Amino acid sequence: MSPDSEQMVERVLRGEGLEVTELHSVPEQKKPVTRTNTCFPVCAVIFNSKNEVLMIQETKAVCRGSWYLPAGRMEDGETIVEALKREVKEEAGIDCQPITLLQIQEKGPNWVRFTFLAEKTGGSLKTLEQENAESMQAQWYDRDCLPPDIRKHDILTLIDAGVKYRQSPWFTVLQPVDLPCDVVCQRFLLAFTSSKGNSDEDRLWLLLSKNFQLPVAVSFEAQILAFTPKKLVEKCMPSIYEQLSVNTCGILGVQHNGRVPGQTDGVCLNTLVVLEYKEEEEESDLSSPPKLENDCFRWHEVTNQKLRTETLRRIQEGSVLPVQSL
């Protein structure tokens, strides 16, 4: 790999952003517009010094009186972090600062929720006397004694993830990068390894475009994020696609800037993907990556030992931001 390509990969592994300058797979997709055809909710997992988690009581008629984490939809002109701080302030009465992204949940590219582990920096909990259209009140709850009337139990896994991360972080702190994007897309660190049972001897290849860029694909409408890399691999290797397993490991970085409503409402998710032969394909040559059938892409072997070791570590340890398809 060239020094420029290596630097690009290093930046993605560090959670930094890269400007989206070209798209390598562009299915038809309506331009994302916040709160019109695209919804990016945010959610906060916040603990106090007693390890109690912050909960808010809902005020909407359909779920009045039930409890949930502070959460809500991004508004026009907001960044992801600005939306988080606003929702926590409106619903819980406190100021907060994000510590790290904790999990991404999605129902296709038109609905992606960003959950943060965050911390209180000021303010005071909303009381019943302060009830408004946003919430009734906010309280701290012990993880083992949560209120019985929880609106949706999907938050339980988020709370558990927050507890786990505070005890033993399995990926480095990750914050959204302020870079504009006009589509919902994924940039892939798509890797193939030849395993010899010894990580010091494993070889590693990454898929690059013919212009030596990491491939960027527009996410398919109404499809889960794990589907998009599969379509890219099928485009690159159509004749052997059925012999391959395309595994999305997780997210390495999030790029978003929604400050120009209707024009920068997209998001780019830098995604770690591993390509393998299926176990039943015993005759496949595992010592080199599958042959490409598309001139727009090429394999490049990572010979920089530090870069190779770090990429393999992230793959083997699962040191990535989790993504869950709902």
UniProtKB/TrEMBL annotation:
* Entry keyword Hydrolase: yes
Can you name this protein? Answer: Nudix hydrolase domain-containing protein
Secreted in keyword set: no
Taxonomically, the superkingdom here is: Eukaryota
The transmembrane segments are none
Which keywords label this protein? Answer: Hydrolase
Describe the location of the Nudix hydrolase domain by residue ranges. Answer: 37-163
- Show the PANTHER family listed in the entry: 8-OXO-DGDP PHOSPHATASE NUDT18 (PTHR22769:SF56), MUTT/NUDIX HYDROLASE (PTHR22769)
Q: Tell me the GO molecular function terms.
A: 8-oxo-dGDP phosphatase activity; 8-oxo-GDP phosphatase activity
The similarity comment for this entry is: Belongs to the Nudix hydrolase family.
